[in-house]
Design a protein that fits this description.
Length: about 140
């Protein structure tokens, strides 16, 4: 079997640490590639990255808390008015429906009464009831 190879970094002693030299750059010009020479002689090359600039914050106009409360109150008032308008419309429609039912019942019942009163006086298919004087004695009916 192959033995795995272990690589251990060589520590840098404090005596060998020197400030890194930076490759000079022309002012107002960013090179495409920047190189740095490390104290041990190695050269590190990489792309220059511009520092991230935060976006400028635009100043928001100051809005008073009272103005916000008035605006929210207006929205709430409009919502309540809309609900009251719907409730009023529903009550009016319900009242009209009940009125129509009462009128319909009056017409039907009135027509039935008119037929009973103004109908023919002949006894076709009706039950004849003879009424005579009844006598109650000692809570008993005597006919």
């Amino acid at each position: 079997m192959n033995e795995p190879t272990i690589h251990r970094p060589t520590p840098i002693t404090p005596a060998a640490v020197h400030p890194a030299t930076v490759v000079p750059v022309q002012p107002h010009t960013t090179p495409a590639v920047a190189s740095i020479v490390l104290p041990d002689g190695r050269v590190v090359t990489g792309y220059a990255v511009a520092p991230a600039q935060p976006e400028p914050v635009t100043a928001k106009p100051a809005i008073s808390r009272a103005a916000v409360n008035v605006a929210l109150g207006g929205v709430g008032f409009l919502a309540v008015c809309g609900g009251l308008l719907l409730l009023t419309s529903f009550i009016a429609a319900l009242t009209a429906f009940v009125t129509q039912l009462v009128i319909l019942a009056a017409v039907v019942f009135g027509g039935w009464i008119a037929v009973q009163v103004l109908g023919t006086s002949s006894h076709r298919g009706g039950t004849t009831v003879n009424i005579r004087r009844a006598v109650f004695k000692r809570n008993h009916f005597h006919g």
